[in-house]
Amino acid sequence: xxxxxxxxxxxxxxxxxxxRHPELQKELEETLRLLVENPFAARLVTHKLKGKLSGSWAxxxxxxxxxxxxxxxxxxxxxxxxx
Length: 83
Fold this sequence. Notes:
Layout: H1 8-20, H2 25-37, E1 47-48, E2 57-61, E3 65-69
Antiparallel strand pairs: 1-2, 2-3
């Protein structure tokens, strides 16, 4: 089972995006749920990143928003913030 762990940068960007565009909150939450269920779902357009962000992945949320993430194995005792 996958879980999402929030970084400080993501939380700040999430809050800022929802504050500026409250109509996107539901779509953003649905995208995050789909990311947990199937990170390679066609709707997400998941792809590897190159350059400075090499090793990370991104998925789409509409035409102008992207979620950048990494696949990380959890270690014993590591606490997760789950969506």
